[in-house]
Amino acid sequence: MTALGGRRAMVTGGAGGIGMACATGLAEAGVEVVIADVSEEACARALEGLPEGVTSRAFDVRDRAACEAAFAAEAEKGGVDILVTCAAVVKASPILDFDPDDWTRILDVNLTGTFHCCQLAGRQMVAKGWGRIITLSSVNGQIANAGRGAYSCTKGGVDMLTRLLAAELGDKGVTANAVAPIPVDTPMIRQVHGPKDRAAWHARTPNPRYAQPEEVASAVTWLASDAADFVNGHILNVDGGFMATGILPGR
Ligand SMILES: NC(=O)c1ccc[n+]([C@@H]2O[C@H](COP(=O)([O-])OP(=O)(O)OC[C@H]3O[C@@H](n4cnc5c(N)ncnc54)[C@H](O)[C@@H]3O)[C@@H](O)[C@H]2O)c1
What we know:
By secondary structure, the chain is α/β, with parallel strands linked by helices. The protein has helices spanning 17-28, 40-48, 64-76, 100-128, 149-169, 187-192, 195-204, 213-224, and strands at residues 8-12, 32-37, 55-58, 82-85, 131-136, 174-181, 235-238. It has a 7-stranded parallel sheet, with helices on both faces. Bound molecules: nicotinamide-adenine-dinucleotide. Residues 12-13, 15-19, 37-38, 42, 60-62, 86-89, 109, 113, 136, 138, 181, 183-184, 186-189 line the site of nicotinamide-adenine-dinucleotide.
């Protein structure tokens, strides 16, 4: 894989489980990484577990003015070459019971927040003639797992936003791809999955386990590298074969 030295990356949701793994993977590949997350406290805690040299910027991806200020500050430092969008929230509830306020909140963070960051980073990348946008989606964006409500809808939206960016920016040196995992062992998943959920996923997944954050991060680092130069508009499932499979007799 081509080294990524000299590139600058922003990882939103970089204080979370997958975001920290992505920040670590990119930093180890030589990228100058800034993590973005909702509070100074979350960022400071995350930096303690991240490689030396990683920095942080606290802002809420829902807040357009805060996003603009953060990307303007990045522009002063040379601009963002690689954007990884991990910031997201989840709530499990049947669709007929789904609280409309939760619906709006989840759309605001997961879809509109991703749009803000992709648009602002994309403008910097187009100006440079090179860029990588890598969105964190989910297999829940492609199939309807019962109870995932607004979350699944936002991930379907993120997939289409990613394809749209690929369609419009490919001739300007910028690629946009999504990484779509099955459940990954992170604080987010421990919040919503009990033993019954785990058993249900394992019964349907050829490699019967959850993904590890580092496995998602290695897909992200590859997509950010020159080795993935001609991969554009792709939704890369990191799923142990889940999306390729129907029933698994004997499980
Ligand atoms: N964990 C999984 O099983 C799983 C599976 C598939 C996809 N994903 C996706 O991977 C990404 C990362 O998930 P994770 O498991 O690391 O979750 P996480 O909850 O550990 O991390 C998410 C991070 O986003 C931050 N965040 C939330 N709202 C924000 C906002 N408004 N502004 C800025 N930051 C905000 C949180 O503070 C947190 O640090 C998400 O997009 C998620 O949908 C996760």
